[in-house]
């Protein structure tokens, strides 16, 4: 392991929950940002496809 010496500074019982907790928080924030800033993502989660639901107009 490249960063194996980190556990001499931080106990694994503290470091691992912090690492996994921070990854979880980041994932939740990204999902919230996508859900609140797009119109197609909530439809996708509800089982609808954006290509069928809306027509694309060019011009």
UniProtKB/TrEMBL annotation:
GO biological process: photosynthesis, light reaction
Keywords on record: Antenna complex, Bacteriochlorophyll, Cell membrane, Chlorophyll, Chromophore, Light-harvesting polypeptide, Magnesium, Membrane, Metal-binding, Transmembrane, Transmembrane helix
Domain (Antenna complex alpha/beta subunit): residue spans on this chain: 4-41
Membrane topology: Single-pass type II membrane protein
Keyword Transmembrane helix among record annotations: yes
SUPFAM superfamilies: Light-harvesting complex subunits
GO terms for MF: bacteriochlorophyll binding; metal ion binding
TM ranges: 14-35
Domain of life: Bacteria
Subcellular location: Cell inner membrane
Any Gene Ontology CC annotation: plasma membrane light-harvesting complex
Major localization listed first in the record, in broad terms: membrane
Pfam entry (one): LHC
Gene3D superfamilies in the cross-refs: Light-harvesting complex
Family label: Belongs to the antenna complex alpha subunit family.
Assembly: The core complex is formed by different alpha and beta chains, binding bacteriochlorophyll molecules, and arranged most probably in tetrameric structures disposed around the reaction center. The non-pigmented gamma chains may constitute additional components.
Function description: Antenna complexes are light-harvesting systems, which transfer the excitation energy to the reaction centers.
Protein name from the UniProt record: Antenna complex, alpha/beta subunit
């Amino acid at each position: 392991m490249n960063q194996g010496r980190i556990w001499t500074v931080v106990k694994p019982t503290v470091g691992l929950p912090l690492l996994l907790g921070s990854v979880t928080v980041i994932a939740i924030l990204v999902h919230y940002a996508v859900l609140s800033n797009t119109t197609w993502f909530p439809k996708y989660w509800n089982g609808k496809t954006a290509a069928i639901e809306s027509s694309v107009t060019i011009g």
